[in-house]
Design brief:
alpha+beta, five-stranded mixed β-sheet, about 290 residues, two-stranded antiparallel sheet
Length: about 290
């Protein structure tokens, strides 16, 4: 089954002033996105060796301020050539919450948050159904985590499960919000007062919100470096070019999951994710 098209609902398009016919990327504009946010996101999408400005369709320079971004075409005006960032992406799908290696992680995240940190919905009387502990850096890519020493950012080391299963790499989310998070359909920008930025039409009413002070004051909260890494990935996955495909995740009993994956986009990458997603909850694949 083909992946969904992330560019389908874009109402902000990004071009080079020297080539106004080729789209560099774009954005589905949701609540809370400002002119300054667009500048910051363009700085992720492209690698520029000099300062640049953004101009609108009327050739007016857009100020880098907190004014709400308006729909339309935007043109990167740079005195020097720039190129599109080809940074490696750690694409993802639905993550699993069962397995011996994630039990302690799940318990620690539950104890710390006790609510969906995005919507604010509280857990009542330890009834956890509908709430899930999400990894900020996907557990399925533990080898990549190890190879690039992302564990250097972790100061709270769990007794079991490795640094990737630290409470500092986790968030408690409502189950439906967890799905959106796993597919990078929203992310948290730690460099804009922990603003929630949605990259698809916002049906949950979360776009433009900020993580609350109760969460931010907790000494066990996720480290900014991981939130920043996740936000950067989300920008590239959703905004660069046509965006990365959204993989199918709903495979009813008896359906040919493998066949569907092999017929879809990036089949090898998706198969690798599904395999390691299942194994990583039980075994340390980085050993």
């Amino acid at each position: 089954m083909s992946g969904c098209d992330r560019s389908q609902h874009r109402n902000v398009l990004i071009f080079n002033t020297s080539d106004r016919n080729t789209t560099i990327g774009g954005l589905v504009l949701t609540a809370g996105v400002t002119n300054a946010n667009l500048y910051a996101m363009v700085e992720i999408i492209v690698i520029a060796i000099s300062d640049f400005t953004l101009r609108n369709e009327s050739d007016i320079t857009i100020k880098k301020n907190d004014s709400p971004l308006q729909p339309g075409n935007y043109y990167i005006d740079s005195p020097e050539p720039f190129e599109v960032n080809n940074e490696v992406l750690v694409t993802c799908g639905m993550s699993l919450q069962t397995g011996s290696r994630v039990q302690a992680f799940r318990g620690a995240v539950r104890l710390r948050d006790r609510r969906c940190v995005i919507t604010g919905e509280e857990v009542i009387a330890d009834y956890w159904r509908g709430f899930e502990a999400a990894h900020i850096f996907p557990l399925a890519y533990e080898q990549y985590w190890t190879d690039h020493d992302y564990g250097r950012w972790i100061s709270i080391i769990p007794d079991k499960g490795g640094t990737i299963n630290s409470i500092q790499n986790g968030l408690l989310l409502r189950s439906d919000i967890h799905q959106l998070f796993d597919f990078y359909e929203f992310s948290i920008n730690p460099d804009d007062n922990y603003k929630i930025v949605c990259f698809i039409p916002d049906s949950k009413g979360i776009a433009g919100r900020h993580l609350d002070q109760r969460f931010l004051d907790n000494p066990q909260r996720p480290v900014d470096q991981l939130l920043r890494w996740r936000f950067r990935q989300a920008v590239l996955i959703n905004m660069r070019g046509a965006g990365e495909p959204v993989f199918e995740h709903d495979f009813p009993p008896g359906s040919d999951m493998i066949g569907s994956i092999l017929k879809g986009p990036k089949a090898a990458e998706k198969m690798e994710f599904e395999l390691f997603n299942r194994l990583a909850t039980q075994f340390d694949l980085a050993e």
